[in-house]
């Protein structure tokens, strides 16, 4: 080893191979089989330069690039062997990104990615690699999949590096702090930065990592920014400059270094000299609670973090329906709205007895992360549901919850430790919830001790002292607050409370909750679980942050509240039912709800739909047909009608059926362009149809299965690309083969009447308005 | 790799993608258009990268002499016939607009439509900026160029998309990824091939007329009486 506790990696492989005449475009990993001598020669140069660890030529040796026929293990074992033959003191299995985006932003599932990495890890392990380096990652979730694959299938140490652009974020928006917190919490043996930019550009990012990483930090910069102005790419940081920059980073606490694109054996030799001339430095690390998503790190260092409570089926019919029907649109909107209202984190609970909670929670977490950057709190009492959700979660989540019961401690804490999550401990045990604050403190103390035994650091443990209903036992509210301050003072951990429980059974619950919230803040509550859409609660939060000094200089408070009149008179907006056509055509969304409410006073829900809303949207459709409206105008009218529909749905009893029939929509397998399908969905929902939206890249068997299961009479399929239109044909054939008694309408930019018929569709929907006419025909209206 | 910081959303183009045909635009809608155009500009990080390759036009394909790759199909062959080099380019707006588009489709389809159109206008402008860069550099060396041609057009197979990304190193430099079916994520990305023709020998062929376009049949612009202007 380079001595003094440092580890020296080698430098670039790709640019060295190109210097030896490798043509671009091919897979450089195949050289392990075709030209092992060239690869070995590059390795040998780096061994000569003093590298401790030689990175095997296996970066892209994955199934997705090499194919499924066993080539992966062949290329990887050759790669490890060549590195060994070059005299490498230690050989690292190199694992690069797959080159496909994970769902839901892309189409590759987490488990597919995991399997691809697993195959690489097994091959490297069997070939005798000493460690694995997962590198050049842009997607924190992909890095997580690779890290899990390495940890679960080998005992090799695992280093993980990500690559950042000049704005200090990866292509997917992860910053160095978020990467360091998430990956080091998950048990990477070193985390760091590679590739990206030159050493000087990444220096500040490296310091961020040193501050937040729990494990050693590794740095492998490029030899500067590539300069392509001369026609070929050149890197222009000299070995001397490179080594000097790395030297500065070693003085701040970096202990593992090497080079990426454009670096040469000379660069590495000079870095070795820097290592030999100094001793390792212990970095100055910041220790406090940090929760992350892929795009955000939330630091809880004495301040308040608001956890939005809305995504929970308890007492919420719409959420129950959404979970039962696997139709998450409503929930995703709740997620976005809570973020806009100021929530810092979102609690996600899918606990309904009649559903497959683990499966639903896993999907829900992924879908929420596609539309909201907020870190999540995974809320379940089922260990399997918790594990499946935290496994696919991008970032470091909170697990809600463990409690003082042995069974719970033993089931939940290993999951929390394995995935590097934070955890909420509830102060209850086999004997229930103790009455006194002292007894709750003792349970909290036990939970903290047990979690620490599992290796979960104290800053990742939060305690919920449990709020009970004040109307049934008036003494207990103050006892909870006492427990909060005891826990905060004696254990020094963050505290969680589900605030709104306190007011069950009382009128004007917001008033009680707000007062209790303020008192709880005073007692030391840091993580309230509440409804962020309630202005009163958020007022308490904002004002307490002023009083506690968290809102420095009251800046945020002044920015939000100055100019706000202290009177509550809201100018009421009124509209008559007869205005509905004009309101819809002009898309004035704030008027429609009032107009529909007034109409409902005298007319039945069905009459309002059939005599008022549908004629209005028909008129908008006609205008679109005549060219008097263009598409956004039609959509704006459709959204207005949809708001009217929502008012009606809220007003009718749950047993009244408003649906005129179910229509299944999907963008077919292979295609991810779904905006057209979503336009159709919006318009059809205006006519009272219930839409089953299967999303995009949907395989034929899933469409068949849902069509049969839900007895669908009309299926709408879309594809944008010429290459994916054939998927429509395959889906239609599969539907027919399965004996589905449904009509199929097809749409998409490259389709036409003739082509739609050719692939077997019953109808060609040239636009959204046409799809509404087709639906009318199929459902006989 | 180049960042493009100085391009704005062309609002006329944006409306053209939405099939705008002179309908009256209310003040509310006008402010929505401006809002989404601005939002697109804030969230987009337009970047491009390209590399030049010497080529040999074979009977049924085009061979890249400095890389182990052949472009297949009669259309790309026609596109490059007479050229001595080609530029392989990749352009993207990045993941932030991708994410915003996904979010807006849950929030409001009207907003999503405007945002999507703004992004389409911007990625085209970004591709134009890349093409302009290629043109300027080519001119200095005594070449003129034709226009950009992408996999998926005509019989230039989408299956070659991985090779175009490899030729530009666009995965690492721009963060472009591919689905199994060869579609790019972020969706607002473009890859293309442009021919470089020696000034003394060959005139590049002009853009084919509308009827010769491989997208003629399904073209939304043509259906609504529009024209992509090329």
Mean pLDDT of chain A: 94
What would you say the CATH architecture of chain B is? 3-Layer(aba) Sandwich
Q: What structural category arises from helix and sheet content of chain B?
A: alpha+beta
Could you say how many structural domains of chain A there are in total? 4
First-to-last CA distance of chain B: 27 Å
Oligomer: heterodimer
Gross morphology of chain A is globular
**What is the CATH superfamily label of the largest domain in chain A?**
Homocysteine-binding-like domain
How many β strands of chain B by DSSP?
9
Domain count of chain B: 1
Just name the CATH architecture of the largest domain in chain A. Alpha-Beta Barrel
Estimate the helix proportion of chain A, in percent.
Answer: 40-55%
Biggest pleated-sheet summary of chain B: 7 strands, antiparallel
Radius of gyration of chain A: 30 Å
Poorly predicted segments of chain A: none
Task: Briefly note the CATH topology name of chain B.
Answer: NADH Oxidase
Give a written overview of the molecule.
The complex is a heterodimer of chains A (781) and B (230). With 781 residues, chain A is an alpha/beta fold. Chain A folds into 4 domains: 7-276, TIM Barrel (Alpha-Beta Barrel); 303-561, Alpha-Beta Barrel (TIM Barrel), CATH 3.20.20.20; 577-651, Methionine synthase domain (Methyltransferase, Methionine Synthase (B12-binding Domains), Chain A, domain 1, Orthogonal Bundle); 662-778, Cobalamin-binding domain (Rossmann fold), CATH 3.40.50. Helix content of chain A is 47%, strand content 13%. Chain A has an 8-stranded parallel β-sheet. In chain A, β12, α14 and β13 (376-379) form a beta-alpha-beta unit. The longest helix of chain A is centred in the C-terminal third of the chain and has 21 residues, at 605-625. Chain A is globular and about 90 Å long. Chain B is an alpha+beta fold and 230 residues long. Chain B has a single domain, classed as NADH Oxidase. Helix content of chain B is 40%, strand content 20%. Chain B contains 8 helices and 9 strands. Chain B has helices at residues 11-17, 27-43, 74-80, 95-107, 109-140, 161-168, 170-174, 220-223; strands at 2-3, 47-57, 61-64, 69-72, 85-92, 143-145, 177-178, 184-185, 189-198. In chain B, strands 1, 2, 3, 4, 5, 6 and 9 form a 7-stranded antiparallel β-sheet that branches. In chain B, α1 packs across α5 and α2 packs across α5. Chain B is globular and about 55 Å long. Chain B starts with a strand and ends in a 7-residue tail after the last helix. Classes of the chains: A alpha/beta (781), B alpha+beta (230). Chains A and B meet through α13, α25, α26 and α28 of A and α2, β2, α4, α5 and α6 of B.
